Amino acid sequence: MKRSLLLLAACAAVLSGCKDPGAPGAASSGGNVPSFVHAAPDVVVKDVRTFTPSDAVAGSNDEYYIITFTFTNDQGQSLAPRINHFVLQDIQNRRFFGVDSGNVNLIGISNYTGVLQVGDSHDYTVGFRVPQGTTATLFYDNTF
Predict the structure, then answer these.
(1) Mean pLDDT, rounded, of the chain
(2) Quick one: pLDDT band at residue 52, thresholds 50, 70, 90?
(3) Could you state, in order of their start, the residue ranges of all structural domains in the chain?
(4) Residues of 55-92 as b/e, b for ≥16 C-beta within 10 angstroms?
(5) What DSSP letter does each residue of 84-98 carry, written as one string?
(6) Quick one: pLDDT at residue 58?
């Protein structure tokens, strides 16, 4: 009996790692995206997937938002966007910086590393480790 309960708990833990991103977001966000991710004017969100981090411990309150989006360079100068300059900022002004490696949930992500001229656009996929249930705005911060 204990073995089957343990097996059932392990299967539930594996299946809970991937969640449905929810209902479609605002039309300005692009395609079928959840309402908990908003976009700055130079970003069009295409897809959001949420995952429990592979290193999460019981009772952990974190999750990954893996966001696919198009970024248009409106920074006033040519730039080679750095992944950690893509930021999710919540209503409490907490900032979560983008990553594309360092966790099993991010395996297979490969982003454009070239220079974008002013007005050029490119697609990116970026992960953000955030507290569960975070609602935030995605933007590019070239100030640091």
Answers:
(1) 81
(2) confident
(3) 20-140
(4) ebeeeeeebbbbbbbebbbeeeeebebebebbbbbeee
(5) GGEEEEETT--EEE-
(6) 62
Q: Count CB neighbours of 36 within 10 A.
A: 18
**Of residues 138, 144, 143, the one with CA closest to residue 72:** 138
CATH class held by domain 20-140: mainly beta
CA distances from 98 to 50, 67, 82, 104, 129 (A): 14, 10, 9, 15, 8
Q: Which two tokens stand for residue 108?
A: 């297979």
DSSP state of 57: P
* Nearest partner of 66 among 23, 37, 95, 44, judged by Cα: 37
Quick check: pTM over 0.85? no
Is the pLDDT at 1 greater than 70, yes or no? no
pLDDT tens, position by position, 111-129 = 999 999 999 999 999 999 9
Placement of tokens 């409490």 in the chain: 92
